[in-house]
Design a protein that fits this description.
Helix content is 18%, strand content 38%. By secondary structure, it is α+β, with helices and mostly antiparallel strands.
């Protein structure tokens, strides 16, 4: 699961931020959706952020996109897609086949999920920052589609790696930088690339 992530204006992230800032879409989306481009701080669903996706000629570019697919059956946006079932679900099929994107960020947040065996109830514990070991940018794999003329995205999730499973049993699909361009290329094989997702994570408890 991934419902929050963080953008820090570091040397490696600034180029993506600047490209989104300079995109002709930015002002159009800001006016039409009454949203500003989020370029720093904690990102929440429905925020607009820089996202890597293919241009019309298939080249890697950065666009502003809104987090969450519209769900006609719910007021809440669809912010995650399970990698195990994404190819079969109608809402994701077309995007899985030809509209894939990457959300560059510093790290993602997860809250420890605690289960009480006696009551059978779940509770929320400590908040953690999580990111791949030895990397300066966390590249979250996602899907995008066009809604009302503007792009929106959802983040793919998979089973959590063993080291962070005590926090949550799911984690976002995170790809190495070397596979970013291949992932957003419409003709590439998504299932093959996903097999290379990073699993060696470092985490730190957030202290308020």
């Amino acid at each position: 699961m991934c419902c929050r992530f963080f953008i820090q204006q570091t040397t490696d992230l600034i180029p993506y931020i600047e490209k989104a800032e300079n995109s002709p879409l930015k002002s159009k989306m800001s006016i039409a959706l009454s949203k500003s481009l989020k370029t720093e701080g904690e990102v929440k669903p429905t925020d607009m952020v820089p996202v890597i996706a293919p241009s019309k000629n298939g080249k890697e570019m950065v666009f502003p996109m809104v987090w969450g697919f519209t769900n006609p059956r719910s007021k809440s946006p669809v912010i995650n897609a399970r990698i195990e079932s994404v190819a079969e679900k109608t809402i994701f099929q077309e995007s899985w086949n030809s509209r894939r994107c990457i959300i560059p960020c510093s790290w993602y947040f997860e809250w420890e999920h605690l289960h009480n065996e006696f009551s059978g109830k779940d509770a929320t514990g400590d908040k953690y920052t999580i990111q791949p070991r030895g990397t300066s940018v966390t590249f979250l794999a996602g899907l995008y589609r066009i809604e009302n003329g503007f792009p929106s995205f959802t983040i793919l999730t998979m089973n959590a790696s063993e080291d962070i499973r005590f926090i949550h049993d799911r984690m976002p699909v995170i790809l190495p930088h070397t596979l970013v361009n291949e992932w957003v290329t419409p003709s590439s094989k998504a299932d093959v690339i996903v097999a290379e997702a990073l699993t060696d994570m470092v985490f730190e408890k957030v202290v308020d």
